[in-house]
From TrEMBL:
Matching PANTHER family: FERREDOXIN
Pfam family of the protein (one): Fer4_15
GO molecular function, one term: iron-sulfur cluster binding
Keywords noted in UniProt: Electron transport, Iron, Iron-sulfur, Metal-binding, Transport
Protein name: Ferredoxin (4Fe-4S)
Xref: InterPro entries: Fe-S_cluster_ET
């Protein structure tokens, strides 16, 4: 499973950080950061989700008020 995060879209509500510790607060910029990720496009970050964190990553995506977080299964199909 993979998570994709559009940091530019993020509005800094930090709801994702409450759901999964893969997201961290950057209060200086008023945005979340996806820890351990790599930038795949300008301001778009991706990382693999450990099996034990899959449910938390899905919850983080679901609570994002601006849909800045997407979750993909191993076949590349978007599931959240």
């Amino acid at each position: 499973m993979k998570v994709r995060f559009d940091r530019e879209t993020c509005i800094g509500m930090f709801q994702c950080t409450a759901e999964w510790d893969g997201f961290e607060k950057d209060e200086d910029e008023g945005k979340a950061d996806l820890a351990g990720s790599e930038e795949v496009e300008p301001d778009v970050f991706e990382r693999e989700v450990p099996a034990e964190a899959e449910l938390d990553a899905k919850f983080a995506a679901r609570v994002c008020p601006v849909d800045a977080i997407e979750v993909y299964d191993d076949d590349g199909e978007q599931i959240v």
